[in-house]
Design brief:
This protein is mainly alpha-helical. 83% of the residues lie in helices and 0% in strands. The longest helix is centred in the N-terminal third of the chain and has 30 residues, at 3-32.
Length: 137
């Protein structure tokens, strides 16, 4: 197994653990009804943590599926693909997008982010995804 495949598997394991922790915290918040942690919106905070946990699990499954596709891995090992990937910074972009969306979800569902700020952050996120997608074409 090459380094990249090992790295992807470690990242998917990390995302899986993070997703399970977020879902467990959501269940804990739901069962305790906000008695040990106070948020401005304790009624919807478990939903936010559960959504983030599911997003993390979906990302982990996607990463594992990418490593299972042998033809895609052969194409990734092509020298031209390595150069293009190094220049594009795909991994950094994915991590940045995942962390920003996690922050938005958690701040919204805990009640710390108002509607105007949420729309601003979502607009920035959507624009960055569009720019990245068009640069990849």
């Amino acid at each position: 197994m090459n380094k990249k495949k090992k790295f992807i598997r470690k990242m998917s394991l990390l995302l899986t653990c993070g997703g399970i922790l977020f879902i467990a915290f959501a269940i804990l918040l739901l069962l305790s009804k906000g008695s040990f942690v106070k948020f401005p919106r304790t009624d919807i905070a478990p939903v936010g943590f559960a959504v983030v946990g599911v997003i993390y699990l979906i990302c982990a499954i996607g990463m594992l599926l990418v490593t299972q596709d042998k033809q895609a891995m052969i194409e990734e090992n092509d020298e031209r693909s390595k150069i293009i990937e190094a220049k594009s910074g795909i991994i950094a972009f994915i991590v940045q997008t995942l962390l920003l969306s996690t922050g938005i979800f958690l701040l919204v569902f805990t009640g710390y982010l108002n509607a105007v700020s949420t729309l601003c952050f979502i607009a920035v996120l959507v624009i960055s995804v569009i720019v990245f997608a068009t640069a990849q074409i």
